[in-house]
Amino acid sequence: MKSLQVELNLARFASTKLINSFSGKSGFMPASPLLLKDTELPPKPGQNWYRIKPILSGICGSDLATVRGETSGYFYRIVSFPFTLGHEIVGIVQDGDLAGQRVVIESVLNCGTRAIEPMCEHCKNGDIQLCENITFGHIHPGLQIGFCKDTGGGWAEELWAHQSQIYPIPEGMGDEDAVMVEPTACGIHAAFSAGIREDDDVVILGAGTIGLTTLAAVKDYLNPKSITITAKYPIQQSAALLIGADIIVKPSELLRSVRRTTNSMAVAPEASIPSVLMEKLLGKGEKTRQDNKELGGASTPKRTTDISPRGLVGRLTKGADVVIDCIGNASSISQALAAVKPGGKIVLAGMPGDVKVDLAPLWQREISLVGAYGYGRELLGDEHTSTFSLAIDLVEREGLGRLVSAKYPLSRYKEAIAHANNAGARESIKIVFSNE
Amino acid sequence: MSPRPGFVLDVDKSTPPILFWRGEELSLEKLPTGSRVIYPPEALPAIKNPREAIAHALDNPIGDSKPLSELLFAGMKLTIAFDDISLPLPPMQSPDNRQLVIEEVLSRAAAAGVDDVVLIAALALHRRMTDAELRHALGDRVFDSFAPYGLLLQHDAEDPENIVKLGETDHGETVDMNKRAAESDLLVYVNINLVPMDGGHKSVATGLASYESIKFHHNVKTMRHSKSFMDMHNSELHTSNWRMGRFIRENGPKIFQIETTLNTNTFPSQFRFLERREWEWNLADRISYHTTALSMSKSTIDMKRNILHSIKSPHAMTSVQAGEVEAVHELTLKNVFKQQLVTVEGQTDIVTMGLPYIGPYNVNSIMNPILVACLSLGYFFNMYKNRPVVRKDGVAIIFHTTDWAFHPVHHPSYIDFFEQVLSETNNPLEIEKNYEESFARDPWYIHLYRTSHAYHGVHPFYMWYWASHAMEHLSQVIIVGGNPKAVHRLGFKSASTFNDAMEMAEDRVGRDPTITHLHMPPLLMAEVI
Question: Which CATH architecture describes the domain A187-267+305-373?
Answer without folding.
Answer: 3-Layer(aba) Sandwich (3.40)
